[in-house]
Amino acid sequence: MTAREHTALVGHGGVHIVEGAGGTRRHALHLVKVMVPVDGPLEVDVEGGRPFGVRAPVLTGAGVVHSVGAPGVTVTVFLPPDGLGAGAQAVARGRVLVLEGAQADRVRAAARAVLRGRLDHAAAHELMRACAAAFAPSGPPFDRRVLRAMRRLAEQAPGRPALGPLAAAEGLSRSRLSHLFHDAFGHPLRDYVTFLRVMTAVRALVEAPPARAALAGGFHDQAHLARAVAATLGRTPGSVARSHFVQAPAAAGPRMIP
User: Fold this and answer.
1) How many C-beta atoms surround the C-beta of residue 221 within 10 A?
2) What are the φ/ψ torsions at residue 248 (nearest 5 degrees)?
3) Most exposed of 82, 93, 139, 246 (fewest Cβ within 10 Å)?
4) For 31-75, what is each residue's pLDDT tens digit?
5) What whole-number distance in Å separates Cα of residue 165 and Cα of residue 97?
């Protein structure tokens, strides 16, 4: 039986609900992710570690290579590491963590509240805020120059972003910006650029055929896009396109798919 999927898009993050057995291939998502199993365990396989099953919520840091299987309803919350997800990213940098105690209870309650109501932009944003509030940053704060550069990157054309001028606008060289980014997020800046291109293409998949979506993201063709989507999201472009998307109000600005 094919799982039913619902996705609400909020800024550079969002909420994804899967009803029925679902899962992903091994991938590295460049967002902070909180996975909440509702009526079954999560089966998590992290690169370099042993697979494990758990019924508690799981936090995945940005850029961590992993795959997930879920036999039942699962609510996944995607938090941009340069915004709502900053605290969660600081806690989980380079790791996958099983949540316990008050953190787990808070996240579960927020996810179940969304399931009892209607998944719309407002409900998704409230769930994202609730998950973000469950994590207090640990360690030094992120360099604001890196955060500003990330936001500007998201506003540029996805094909070939001008990293040199972007770094210079923050008083940095391109190599220094790349170094600071890696220190903050634990993965290369070039991978984040690819992630943004994938998000642009996936957003286009909502209304356009795969060939046009590939061009929108600066990919050579559908095959190139399919490889990038699999590496970033652990899914195929077709499975992404079949999800039921809840779009934000037009006044809320551009949306990107987690």
Assistant:
1) 11
2) -75, 160
3) 139
4) 899 999 998 899 999 998 899 999 999 999 988 999 999 999 999
5) 37
197: tokens are 């291109």
Lookup result for tokens 């063709």: 221
One-letter-per-residue 3-state SS of the chain: CCCEEEEEEECCEEEEEEECCEECCCEECCCEEEEEECCCCEEEEECCCCCEEECCCEEECCCCEEEEEECCCEEEEEECCCCCCHHHHHHHCCCEEECCHHHHHHHHHHHHHHHHCCCCHHHHHHHHHHHHHCCCCCCCCCCHHHHHHHHHHHHCCCCCCCHHHHHHCCCCCHHHHHHHHHHHHCCCHHHHHHHHHHHHHHHHHCCCCHHHHHHHCCCCCHHHHHHHHHHHHCCCHHHHHCCEEECCCHHHCCCCCC
Q: What contacts 86, CB < 8 A, 6 or more positions away?
A: 137, 142, 147
Please state the length of the chain: 258
- Rounded to whole angstroms, the Cα distance separating 128 from 79 reads 7
Residues 10-26 pLDDT 10s: 877 889 999 887 889 99
pTM of the model: 0.86
C-alpha–C-alpha distance, residues 196 and 158, integer Å: 7
**Two tokens, residue 42:** 């999560």
171 is written with which tokens? 């008083």
Give the other-Cβ count within 10 Å of 108's Cβ.
Answer: 17
Cα-to-chain-centroid distance, residue 80: 7
